[in-house]
Design brief:
- The chain has 161 residues and is an all-alpha fold.
- The protein has one domain.
- The protein is 72% helix and 0% strand.
- The protein has five helices and no strands.
- Helix 1 packs antiparallel against helix 2.
- It starts with a helix and ends in a 5-residue tail after the last helix.
- 19% of the residues are buried.
- This is GtrA-like protein domain-containing protein.
Length: 161
């Protein structure tokens, strides 16, 4: 892959990540506004985070990074990233309420969506580098000065004189 093609592929993957993640985030935001009337914010946010993470892990594995269906390990790794995102978004909204107890739903959603956007940037890097890494074949063993006849690598190594 040339450098230019690599940049294009990563830019396209990031655009898909933003589109898919942004769509799920908007749906999650609306659901959070509804659930927030019945549950404490932290509990509603945790429920939304779990459901949206499972959905976006499937979407990002298949469509953003082209890895097919994610396995349990990838779901668990993505879930760990979700935990960090939940802490950040919950802390941001809690800080808002500590500073402005009378904050309405519009301001609360603005803070929530802003924090989610920042978390999303970190999530993209985490998913790209740790969860849905590019698979490259490992280099095989290299035999130096290997004589024909099946000598082992240890037997065939001759240090320079």
């Amino acid at each position: 892959m040339t450098r230019t093609n690599g940049i294009r592929q990563h830019a396209a993957a990031f655009a898909r990540f933003v589109g898919l993640g942004g769509g799920v985030t908007l749906v999650s935001s609306a659901a959070l506004a509804v659930l927030g009337g019945w549950l404490p914010f932290a509990a509603a946010n945790a429920l939304i985070a779990l459901v949206s993470t499972a959905a976006t892990t499937e979407l990002h594995a298949r469509l953003t990074f082209g890895h097919g269906r994610p396995d349990l390990r990838q779901h668990l790794q993505s879930g760990a990233g979700c935990g960090i995102g939940w802490l950040a978004t919950t802390a941001a909204v809690a800080a808002l309420h500590a500073l402005r107890a009378d904050a309405g739903v519009v301001l609360e959603q603005t803070v929530y969506l802003s924090a989610t956007g920042l978390v999303g940037l970190g999530r993209y890097v985490f998913l790209r580098l740790a969860v849905f890494t590019e698979h490259r074949p490992a280099a095989g063993p290299v035999a130096l000065n290997a004589p024909r006849g099946g000598a082992s690598r240890c037997d065939s190594y001759r240090p320079a004189a």
